[in-house]
Amino acid sequence: MIKQEQIQKSQLVLVVDDFEINRDILGMMLEDDYKVAYATNGKEALDFMFEHAYDLSIVLLDLIMPVMNGFEVLEAVRKNEQLKTIPIIVLTAEKSAELKALQLGASDFITKPFDVHEIILARVSRVIELSEGRQLISSAETDFLTGLYTRNFFFEYANRLFTYHPETHRDAVVINVEQFHTINALNGRDFGDRVLRRIGDSIMSCLQHVEGIAARNEADRFDIYCAAQEDYARMLACLQSKVNELSPSVSIHLRMGVMPWHEGLEPIVMFDRASAACNMARGNFQSPLMIFNDNMLKRELLNQRLLNDLQAARTERQFRVFYQPKYDIQCTPPRLASAEALIRWWHPELGIISPGDFVPLLEGNGLIGMVDAFVWQEAARQVVEWRETYGIDLPVSVNLSRTDVFDPTLVERLVNLIEDNQIDYKSIKLEVTESAYTDNAKQVLDVIARLRDAGFQIEMDDFGSGYSSLNMLSDMPIDVLKMDMKFVRNIEHNATDRRLVALILDIARYLEVKVIAEGVETEGQLDLLREGGCDLVQGFYFSRPLPPEEFEELIKSELATERN
């Protein structure tokens, strides 16, 4: 029979002994400082431990008892994840039993007959303090959702393995979930947490067969530091199969980057490279596994060089803005209607740097907003110059990155841009990529709505690239859909693409917004788009992106046509 004293203390102690006199002696010693509960055998003790697993601070356990002895209790506790964090002090008169008890997980022992009560109190207090300290460390050590290590503890352990066992070849592995934010947005955060837990459980299962440690680094990124493997495709396939079991109706794709062991290379550097490899696998559903190699190293070194040279690029005006014309094709002949501002980088040593090389780099490092602001200023200045030189108001579209959209000063900055240059709000059109609408959709929609209320026109860029749903689209405050160029590329020869283009044009008519098609290169593409009701096009059929001085030749030609 378990009896618990009704004393309001903060820590609960369980005394387990089949002799009442022993229970009473220990109770008198402890009851002034602790809540005390009693059990007469091991079975009662285990039942109580399960019931109070999260409240129990320590167990004082006799070894020789009927029904279930103390050794059997220690064995049961050692095998149970829930109970094994509870410290146990064994009570014994047998010196020979102490070693076995400690080997089974006992924290300390108290010899019978009992010592001076101050010594027993000191032992109990010390063991509780040590246990609570370990639990506090453990709570910071492991991720609450997956049970894997947290980032800081993971790298601490990885560095120790690297330092003390340099002879072991260990690889760095990084795993990410494709478009995890979209999975959360469409299926709810609870489902997203289930995905993360399943990945964590699967990695733990994997590590039973592969020597290593693992962490949930951040959000949907997982890191594994393990003995070098020959077949990471098999590991990825195993993890993917476990995730696929979660829901047949939700498509979840994992990608993996691996940095193989390299003599002397520290874990933090290895994981930077594994992460770079994982990022290069983004969107590649056919080859979701990337192994870091020499070409990636060159790419990494180039990226670092570009980041180092970014400040000089700004101060030395190495960035230039080009303009690609957009033509209204619902009139004959097509008429120059507007332009898109596109950034270029003239590096004094590396030459022309492709936007495809530096724009994603700056986006990934949170630096794209600085370049965007430069483009906005240049575009506004160019609109003013064309108005003063040629007497025309030619609108220019500029890009808003995800970083820009989440800037709390964005609306104020853009309004000031318009007022400082004394131009119309419709002279600067704002392009937002379709994917940006799924990152904290409510906040994005609120910001876009405020920009429209101020007078700006909003163009959804890359429409059809696969992020938004139709029910979201009906809520998006936009004026123009800009059709992703992949739909235009094959419309002359692919009936499916023609039907998709027709569907997008129908959606636009339903929403009462205009459509811009980009990437138009042939007359056949132009004719099909015109017949389908597309409003504006841009692409090499009319012109590549041009520096301002060459773009002005198009303006002059347009004005000459109008005069004739």
Protein model, in words:
The chain has helices at residues 20-30, 42-51, 70-78, 95-103, 117-141, 151-164, 180-187, 189-206, 232-244, 267-280, 294-315, 355-364, 368-390, 402-405, 410-421, 441-454, 470-473, 485-489, 495-511, 523-532, 548-563; strands at residues 12-16, 35-39, 56-62, 88-92, 108-111, 170-177, 212-218, 221-227, 254-259, 289-291, 319-328, 335-347, 351-353, 396-400, 428-433, 458-463, 480-483, 514-518, 536-538. The radius of gyration is 34 Å and the shape is elongated. It folds into 3 domains: 12-140, Response regulator (Rossmann fold, 3-Layer(aba) Sandwich), CATH 3.40.50; 151-292, Reverse transcriptase/Diguanylate cyclase domain (Alpha-Beta Plaits, 2-Layer Sandwich); 301-553, Alpha-Beta Barrel (TIM Barrel). Helices cover 48% and strands 20% of the residues. The chain is an alpha/beta fold. The protein has 21 helices and 19 strands. The longest helix has 25 residues, at 117-141. Helix 7 crosses helix 8 and helix 8 (189-206) runs antiparallel to helix 9 (232-244). Strand 4 (88-92), helix 4 and strand 5 form a beta-alpha-beta unit. The protein has an 8-stranded mixed barrel, surrounded by 4 helices.
Key traits:
564 residues, alpha/beta, Rossmann fold, Alpha-Beta Plaits, TIM Barrel, 3 domains, five-stranded parallel sheet, disordered N terminus
The CATH topology assignment of the largest domain is TIM Barrel
Q: Specify the CATH homologous superfamily of the largest domain.
A: EAL domain
Shape: elongated
Biggest pleated sheet: 8 strands, mixed, barrel
Q: Evaluate the radius of gyration.
A: 34 Å
Unreliable residue stretches: 1-8
Q: What is the name of the CATH class of the largest domain?
A: Alpha Beta
Q: What's the tally of helices?
A: 21
